[in-house]
Design a protein that fits this description.
By secondary structure, this protein is an alpha/beta fold. 38% of the residues lie in helices and 22% in strands. The chain has one domain: 3-Layer(aba) Sandwich (Rossmann fold), CATH 3.40.50.150. A 7-stranded mixed beta sheet has the order 3-2-1-4-5-7-6. The longest helix has 18 residues. It is globular.
Length: 216
């Protein structure tokens, strides 16, 4: 996937009805796991256009954003001067050991050919008592099925994961969210947003968005 080519229109997804709905649920679960605290040093690996980096900066964290796409980083730079934006490879990061209190990789490993190497690097630069949080697209979900059927270009080269596959990376705890899928009418989205927490308890392995905390 060439993210430089889609960088200019990437954020338009967040302005769609489903995009707003999905992002709110995903963000809520990411923040619950991340437990961000003012003054902490955070690394957003595969930051894209800086959506999450900006949110962490507003919370008072010292934010570093890393991505391989120059186009995505150009967009991120327009959002805030509070982000330390670095062009780099997740598999060979230019940071010293034990640098960050919190590291997040949100829809990152799906697009890597060697995710194990990237996770090793994240563990290397994470402090001993830090938190490593991944947000991952779930292969065992209605959304994954929908994307396969419709041939969404963004995910054509992505590898979706199940929680069972993610456990090889050393998962401490995990949860899922987002049981609705694209093209649902608004009245159904309203029902799903009220029922998502209940559905995640009953059908935990099948939410479209998995959030895991990985052991150091």
């Amino acid at each position: 996937m060439n993210f430089d080519e889609i960088a200019g229109r990437y954020d338009s997804w967040y302005r769609t009805e489903f995009g707003r709905y999905a992002h709110n649920l995903e963000r809520e679960l990411i923040m619950y796991f991340a437990r961000p605290a003012k003054g902490e040093k955070i690394l957003d690996v595969g930051c894209g256009t800086g959506t999450y980096g900006l949110e962490f900066a507003k919370m008072g964290l010292d934010v570093t954003c890393l991505d391989m796409s120059r186009g995505m980083l150009r967009v991120a730079k327009t959002k805030s001067r509070d982000l330390d934006i670095i062009l780099g490879d997740a598999k060979e990061m230019p940071f010293r050991d034990n640098t960050f209190d919190l590291i997040v990789g949100i829809t990152l490993i799906e697009f890597l050919n060697k995710p194990e190497k990237a996770i090793q690097e994240m563990k290397r630069v994470l402090r001993g008592d830090g938190r490593l949080i991944l947000g991952v697209l779930n292969k065992f979900s209605l959304s994954a099925l929908y994307e396969r059927i419709t041939g969404n270009e963004t995910y054509a080269s992505a590898r979706f994961y199940s929680i069972f596959e993610l456990k090889k990376f050393g998962v401490k705890r995990w949860d899922s969210t987002l049981f609705a899928f694209k093209k649902m009418p608004g009245f159904l989205l309203d029902w799903f947003v009220k029922s998502d927490r209940i559905l995640s308890k009953i059908f935990k392995p099948f939410g479209a968005f998995l959030v895991v905390e990985v052991e150091k």
